Fold Aldehyde oxidoreductase.
Amino acid sequence: MIKPRKMWLNINGADRMLICDPEKDSLAQVLRRIGLTSVKIGCDTGVCGSCSVILNGKVIRSCNRKITRVKEYSRVITLEGIGTPENLHPLQVAWMNRGAVQCGFCAPGFIVSAYALLLENDNPTRQEVRDWFQKHKNVCRCTGYKQLVDAVMDAARVVRGEASMEDITYTPPKNNECYGKPLVRPAALAKVTGLADYGEDMALKMPPETLHVAVVQPRVAHHAKILKIDTKEALQMPGVVKVITHEDIKAKGGTNQMAEANLHERSTVTLPSRKILSDEKIFRYGDVVALAIAHTPAQARAAAAKVTVDIEPLPEYLNFLDAVMPDAIRVHDDTPNLYCCQPVLKGAALEDAEKIPEILDNSACSVEGSFHSSREPHLSIEGCTVQAYFDEDDYLTFQCKSQGLYTSISRIGSSLGVARDKLRIVDNFNGASFGWSTNAGDLCLAGAAAVAVKSPVALSLSYEEHQHFSGKRCPSYSNGRVACDEKGKITAAEFDFGLDHGAYSWGGDHVMEKPVRFAFFPYNVPHVAGLCRVANTNHTFGTAYRSYGSPQAYTLSEALMDMLAEKMGIDPFEFRWINIARPGDTNINSHGFKEYPMEAMMEKMRPHYDRAVTDAKAADTPEKRRGVGLAWGGFNVTEGGTDQCTVTLELDDKDRIVKYDTWQDLGQGGDVGSLMVTLEALKPMGVTPDRIRLCQNDTKICPDSGMSAASRSHYMNGLATRMAAEKLMEAMQKPDGTYRTYMEMKAENIETRFEATYTCMADPTITRLDPNTGIGDPTPAFTYVLNMAEVEVDAATGKTTVLRFVCVYDVGKIGNIAAVSGQAYGGISHSIGFALSEDYSDVKKHTNIASSGVPYIKDIPDDILLIPCETPRKSGPFGSSGASEAFQSSGHVAVINAIYNACGVRIFDLPARHEKVKAGLDSLAAGNTIAPPRKYFLGSDLYEELETIKANPVKFRGHDMFNSLGDEDGARFF
Ligand code: FES
């Protein structure tokens, strides 16, 4: 029995009486319990700073400050005490207007921290601001930090009386020319005032009858047979309502299998691979075998800890190389571990792949290398939190974080025994995702509990549980070779990729197509023989992550480009200049690029590169080595031929336009993106931002606008919105050219609500990759980036610091410059983390954001220059395409190339942790060279495999495969 303690604290200026659990309560829990939910709990281990408050004048992290360590009558300041919507503090205004709010989960902690800084020093330098956030461990995973420092500097000017609030507030143009401008996100106000309710906040505010769910995640093996699951003791625990296993899901009519599609012609998968609750086997460390449901979260956790699982260990394959060895047993009985592959052949290889090694051998110069990219964790600060309940119409409703609301319905499928048309998904405000929330695994857990007890439930995983439960970027192993003629023109390339898709198959046949599209993008390579293979292993499953599948490609190709340039004695910039594709050239899939901004982009980069090289030479010392690295990158836009998006526009009785869509906002700006395209589409009517109301992200009332992924949202939603706007404006327009009011529409009995769907099926230029040749043009648009990193390597420790970063990019016409820049800064920061520190390979060590290598502010340079190059896209809405993915495609290789340029150590195996660089430096000092890893064995020899594929062609189903579900071709759609 707990013995509560009464205490008084002065909170935000008022004395408050509190009743605490002295054994368990942290200050954060106490503050949240009295409604101060601006205090976020992210990591819950004191490493992310989301829970920052000011205690007796000092910034502290309240999640790991036990209430017993807080003196009675202490003074506490939370965000609620700093400013309100009607009385904003300059920091809050600056945060909104400087693009410092993306997902916003970190915003309360940062603003509180910055408030304390300005109390101490109202005239800080940028460096002092950075030092402060570093010292107080404030982490932002979305923004890349630069905008946060900008915001503090703006707010400080107001605090000092040198600027007014108006001076730091962006005002949209009066002339209705909003497109491209940094309009503030509609959700920003709620986020900077702590009023946005994220997952855990929603859980606190559920009805009192809500039950709480805890997972049984045994974490005893990566691969094992389950012999017995014993729930008896758990059921006797206080407050327990039920403990469920896979049998309970099946008893309610559910299949316990998440729906899955493996549509590639070469996929050998015949059964869905993922269960909601494990039944016969554990496939990975993070699998869940049971759920404990109780009246309180603590009771549920205590009961979950009492469930025992007996297992028989099986061989564990924790990487691609082990899983594809001939003696490896199958991870899934229905398919070989290596379950799909996609070749790409171009030029002479189309006739005979064996001609490529001949061309390579006979070229003036060639280089080869083998590379490994790591299992990159997303490290959003907020993990998995879901509430599930049957609503007033008996819809099983999920309040959650999902990047694809309708896709989540498809993934849940019949797994829970609830009809698909009775599933409803609603996005909470959420603390970012970057791809992991495309899977719906956490929704299935909460849904299974809600079905079992027919009561509202709340499920919140600890950060460690979330880390093991969620998917990660597929690690890759690759071998490659590229050659050029005596003038430095590339003659041919060969490559072979192996992607580790972990325990589950869904999506593997899709991500596998990216390396065979983006290796050597956007160069002109006349002859290519390549292959990408994907395999199941016993590590966590591969999933979407910004720039899905392309960083693995650039890890190989942009390193090889630098290596070949060096061998030829040509400057890496000039070597790229020689080889970029120009009008008439084709990509490795034998199709033209959609546009050719490459020369223009390199011209924009050239002066910065020249300056950087000069700076690096001048500053280089034996102790601090300086270097410059380049990397081209880019990505596709949309999910391809079957992608479609539906939106609805309605004139309401206040003469506002209501926009209904499911543009999921994970922090990238689904709200402001939707606003921008709607404003632009309705520009002929002179609609201003205040006349648009967004109604988003609830499947019961919003149409299916598709996923927030694949840089598709702006492109697809923009085109669909334009179609809906044309219909609405046509209906509203009077013969004299003016527009009817709502009352006039009703008086004339004219429809006021219009839905429109844009589908890529309508685009005849799109063709899937041929599974036999890799010829194809699967998506309607590309985005392009050219990255340059300037680094310093400490010769004594091997530690790399990125000093400056320049990114020239072309995403077409920019819709909202603040949102696009936000994706750029954020993508660059993830790229730097991917290059230097991030990893989820060791499940015992990589349990939180800090131990998994999340970059803190000092790991990301303050000096990041973004240079747009706006080539209008013919097919896209208003000249735009999409943004986001490209910004995380290749920046990591710019860093890796810069390390080599600085100190001669080439990193073939990500991440470039300081001990790895130091070992390379020591090796060089001892007079050794640094050899690449031995060529990886990826299941078979590349050319033997290409020969086998040629000898056994599969029927290319093109886009028709989606229409043939139900016949033999549809057998892979579960
Ligand atoms: Fe900082 Fe998302 S905006 S973590």
Observations:
- Confidence is low (pLDDT under 50) at residues 964-971.
